[in-house]
Amino acid sequence: MEKNTGKIYLNLGCGNTYKRAWINVDCNKDVKADIYADFTKKLPFKNNSVDVVLLDHVLEHIPSDKYFGFIDELYRICKSNAKIEIYVPHYSGMYALKHPTHYKYFGIGSMDLFRPEPVFNGERYCKARFELLEEKLIFWHHNLVNFNFLSKIPLNWLFNFSRGWQLLMEKFHIWGFDEIKFVLEVKKC
């Protein structure tokens, strides 16, 4: 997502990826950030103030008992129609289970619970509502450190023809997917 003047762009959980012209936020004081915050508590931003949020491998680190509170905080700070770009490990990938601070694993449909229309028999666990703009299986991690050339191979289109096809790819996966990408649009009344 590109930066536009006058809008607030958050790189939430920036880690070692400090983005110029963005507000970089992390809980780890050993990395360069503009703001240090505990993601399990209230985020230090005003209601309806943020236009774009990037969560690059953050959601899986939110403890399960704090997950819905964090999602509601994202919803609170974002303007209506704000975009949230999310990268998380896919449950079938090698990165999902091996990291000791991963609390959650994701797949096709993991963000359906937050859609404006009722899904999963109308289950609701928080106030947040998002329109799902993109849901994409990613074979190679989008930002491989040691083998960066692999993330440039145009392979992902094979797995993302339609949601039905994505669900089949998950059910009959042979190799596993490193990641899943979601793009959400905030929906407020």
Can you characterise this structure?
The protein is an alpha/beta fold and 189 residues long. It has helices at residues 67-77, 94-98, 163-171, and strands spanning 9-12, 23-26, 35-36, 50-56, 78-89, 130-138, 179-186. It has one domain: Vaccinia Virus protein VP39 (Rossmann fold), CATH 3.40.50.150. The chain has three helices and seven strands. A seven-stranded mixed beta sheet has the order 3-2-1-4-5-7-6. Helix 1 (67-77) links the parallel strand 4 and strand 5 (78-89). The two termini are 25 Å apart.
Secondary-structure topology with pairs:
Blueprint: E1 9-12, E2 23-26, E3 35-36, E4 50-56, H1 67-77, E5 78-89, H2 94-98, E6 130-138, H3 163-171, E7 179-186
Parallel strand pairs: 1-2, 1-4, 2-3, 4-5
Antiparallel strand pairs: 5-7, 6-7
Q: Brief description of this entry?
A:
With 189 residues, the protein is an alpha/beta fold. 13% of the residues lie in helices and 24% in strands.
Shape: globular
Helical proportion, percent range = 10-25%
Class of secondary structure makeup: alpha/beta
Under CATH, the topology can be stated as Rossmann fold
Record keyword descriptors for this entry.
189 residues; alpha/beta; seven-stranded mixed sheet; Rossmann fold; 3 helices; 7 strands
